[in-house]
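Exam revision sheet. Question 4 asks you to relate a sequence to its structure. Input first:
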Amino acid sequence: MANPLKFLLGGLLGFAFAVPAGILQVDAGLNRILHNTQWIIGPHVHVAPYMWLAGICGAMLLVAFGAFLLNIVMTLGLKGALGVFQKSALDKDELLPIA
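Answer key, structure tokens:
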């Protein structure tokens, strides 16, 4: 068995074990009957360095999108940037080519 296949089967097996457990854990009524607790499902196992990396990358994307919007507003001006969403002052016949 090749290594890529082992990784694939390991991932599928992990999901096969985790999905039923997650469904049972998220069912508050069944949890109340079986454990008599109000256990709050938190990030438990899912907090990993990859989650921190995803958060940092998401924040960087948010900053980049803000810089992009600032660039558009600084280039076109606020009236020009918002004017894209307004109805044109030109008549429809002036915009369309004559057929």
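Marking note for examiners. The chain has two domains: 1-42, 48-88.
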